[in-house]
Amino acid sequence: MSDDSKIMRWGTIIAAITIVVRIVLEQAGASEMINNIFGVAWLYLILPVLFALGIRARDYASPYRTLLKDTLLFAVYTRVMVLFTYMLAYIFKWSAPRFALERGGNVGENVGAWTGLLLIPIRNALIWIGMATIAGMIIGSVTLVLKRKTPTPAAAS
């Protein structure tokens, strides 16, 4: 198994754990400040650095394409998991502030099933996938540039 897939696998596992912990804290009534610590958005700042370091270590022919693929896939994997939490929030009428209709969520009065189960969760997922991919490409690209291998000078004869 390549290091890329290990980073992706562990990042996705950590994201899943983070999502579950956040839901438990929200349902237990923890403050919004505490809940925000347990957000997968933080991982969009960390994983691209790890992806870039792995890409540089293996000296890929097209590092930026590989970084884009890894960053986009990680964003899709995590946002699909979050999408399901929004669907559950609609079904069970969770009261956490992030699910409130006024804050871009899908729980509130006059929210129909079509809107609450599909439209708002998919809209949020698409927005976050775009933002996470852009942020990840910026952070990962900076890492790739900083970790660029410098050519060794030729020995003088």
Could you describe the 3D structure shown?
- With 157 residues, the protein is mainly alpha-helical.
- The chain has one domain (3-146).
- It contains five helices and no strands.
- Helix 1 packs parallel to helix 4.
- It is elongated.
- The N and C termini lie far apart (44 Å).
Shape: elongated
Provide a count of the helices: 5
Largest sheet: none
Radius of gyration, taken over Cα atoms and rounded to an integer in Å: 19 Å
Average of the residue pLDDT scores: 94
Structural class: mainly alpha
Instruction: List segments where confidence is low: pLDDT < 50 over at least 5 consecutive residues.
Output: none
Can you tell me the number of structural domains? 1
The total of beta strands comes to 0
Q: Roughly what percent helix?
A: over 70%
% residues in beta strands: under 5%
What is the H/E order? Answer: HHHHH
Termini separation: 44 Å
Feature tags:
157 residues, mainly alpha, 5 helices, elongated
Summarize the structure.
With 157 residues, this protein is mainly alpha-helical. It has helices at 3-28, 32-37, 43-58, 63-92, 113-146.
Topology of this protein?
Elements: H1 3-28, H2 32-37, H3 43-58, H4 63-92, H5 113-146
